[in-house]
Design goal:
Chains A, B: Residues 235-355 form the 3-hydroxyisobutyrate dehydrogenase-like NAD-binding domain. The first copy, chain A, is of the alpha/beta class. Chain A contains 16 helices and nine strands.
Chain lengths: 368, 368
């Protein structure tokens, strides 16, 4: 996982996005740092995964945005989330330019009526708002300040929306660096999954200056069904997202510990699911993830390595603040062990498989 | 907390219940072992606490039981739960004898139309069903096999319902010991809180022989709105309850870690509550307990020491099964630290206060 300081070194070592012929993987993740597999393995599923961490938590009938925006927008990162957000912006009336390190995604976007761009700088030229939909701080810095970065062309007074989950201090540093150049920065982590992105029904945990909110509002109205305005400075949005990730990660590890221990005792885990989801031991993650264990289906909806990354960020934040977090530290170790056992890219409910394997416990679909 | 083996030694060292003049404390808890404060401190709030762990998790409009039973029942332990259960049995048509170590509770019960008894043995004489509503295995064994215990008088073929949360192996051992004498044993941990107990609307996690279920059913119908039949042998009910307690305890510790860390970062914890309860990081315990932190009100609904006890039982069970449980082990340490800091009898959300105090973080109503 990234250490706070080494992550800064990592940012400086980042290479620009490299073209990829793959369309099966989230694409902007290729704009990654070399030689930091633990840092970047997570990113390779993160458009899907990180957001599906919060998918389905709101009632399905959440109204899609009826906002009609005007002006020019750019979306950097046309993965499962970014592509849908670009569609929502177009539907709301924006003239939208799109860039992705995967040329095929850009071609598809252009074929469907968007403006394809060959670089973040080209996409951002003349844009009122640039929406960055990448996986982490390293990619965000590359898009802002790397070769052909947004900072080279973005108009004065235009706003950069950063949706990646990252350490709040890193978000503050990126924002300060951009705002020193006369542009606005909105710290705006997102959740809701690919379908809500396409519907303009995301949840956004946002913080930034009143000017940044004002400039970004038409785009936020186009993309979000629920906007939390969490403070007047970048970093607050990131901090709320990290608190959610702390809890979500611990709850997956606890659910895995509990259901594997129940199986070890010979309990019917389908019955355990029925009883716990009607009891005080329930959590959103238990209810959402444990069916994967009951069904023995570890097809990744959200990958183990996403929480290796996010609980790692929590540890870095907490150590830097001299704040002990023993419960999330224990949870991180279980995600790390699951990743070390070769399941890093599998569904994060695989933590239950790790408990089962090290104890010789049989779980559905996974002979111990 | 009780170690599996030492808890058995503890059972053998148990003194019979001693009369108490206090009516303000749950009463059967006085049937405790001498010199085991960590084991027994929890019990002193447990009628209130252990059950409120699961209070309010079901919709308020759960119908109260309309069952009408016949025959004779005994309730041992007329605390906040047992008294209500005895009322539900009377309402259903049972002739109910009640015993408690607190003579005042027995007198009140008799004054309200019940039969007061002077010992478990007297209460159980001629009873078809004996409902034990005490806090732990030690008290349960005292009631069964101690001086003036139920086993001295219970009729052949009558059933003993044990509602205390305990190690499933201990439940199996108590059941085997009683069933060897020709009586039936139903392992039947309860949840739902004092109000549901009085309404006959409890949740029961039960396991036992078909004969035990058949004999107990009229009483279960009178006391429970929701009955989970979890197996045909004692121990299964206890095992399901312990899995719930593992999750509930970890979720309280995680919620405390998260909200105190959020406060440490200067986030508005009322806003954190709003965002998290609408997010994937939510848990039943976060939603139920964190308002105590936001309000700075640590009046005990469920005490810290209840989870010192229950997560302790989990550790004993897991170590005995050679099953690592690092996440709940970390959570237990935080409950222990909170108890060691003098908050053992305070509300279990006090774990957040411990995080705040050791980090100099300010929480509402608790100057750090």
């Amino acid at each position: 996982m990234p250490l706070r300081r080494s992550s800064w070194r990592a940012l400086r070592r980042c290479s620009p996005p490299r073209p990829s012929s793959s369309t099966s993987e989230p694409t902007a993740s290729r704009g990654a740092c070399r030689g930091r597999p633990l840092l970047h393995k997570p990113s390779q599923r993160s458009f899907l995964s990180e957001d599906q961490v919060m998918t389905e938590q709101f009632s399905p009938e959440v109204a899609t945005s009826g906002a009609t925006g005007t002006g020019r927008a750019a979306v950097i990162g046309l993965g499962s989330m970014g592509y849908g957000m670009a569609q929502s912006l177009k539907r709301a009336g924006f003239d939208v330019a799109g860039f992705d390190v995967n040329a095929a995604a850009v071609e598809r976007f252009a074929a469907e009526g968007g403006r394809g761009a060959s670089s973040p700088a080209e996409a951002a030229r003349d844009a009122d708002v640039v929406v960055s939909v990448v996986v982490n701080a390293a990619q965000t810095e590359t898009i802002l300040f790397g070769p052909d970065g947004v900072a080279q062309t973005l108009a004065d007074g235009a706003v950069f929306l950063s949706s990646a989950t990252m350490d709040p201090d890193v978000a503050r540093a990126l924002a300060a660096r951009l705002e020193a150049t006369g542009r606005l920065y909105l710290d705006a982590p997102i959740s809701g999954g690919a379908q809500r992105a396409a519907e303009g029904a995301l949840t956004v945990l946002a913080s930034g200056s009143p000017e940044a909110f004002a400039k970004a509002r038409p785009a936020l109205d186009a993309m979000a069904a629920r906007l939390y305005e969490l403070g007047d400075a970048p970093g607050q949005g990131a901090a709320f997202k990290m608190i959610n990730q702390l809890l979500a990660g611990v709850h997956i590890a606890a659910a895995s510990e509990a259901i594997a221990f129940a199986a070890r005792q010979g309990l019917d885990i389908a019955k355990v699911y029925e009883v716990i989801t009607a009891s005080a031991g329930n959590s959103w993650m238990f209810e959402n993830r444990m069916p994967h264990v009951v069904d023995g289906d570890y097809t990744p909806r959200s990958a183990v390595d996403i929480f290796v990354k996010d609980l790692g960020i929590i540890q870095d934040m907490a150590r830097s603040a001299k704040f002990p977090v023993p419960v999330s530290a224990a949870a991180l170790q279980m995600f790390l062990a699951t990743s070390a056992a070769g399941m890093g890219r599998d569904d994060d409910a695989s933590v239950a498989r790790l408990y089962a394997r090290i104890t010789g416990t049989r779980l559905p679909g996974d002979p111990a």
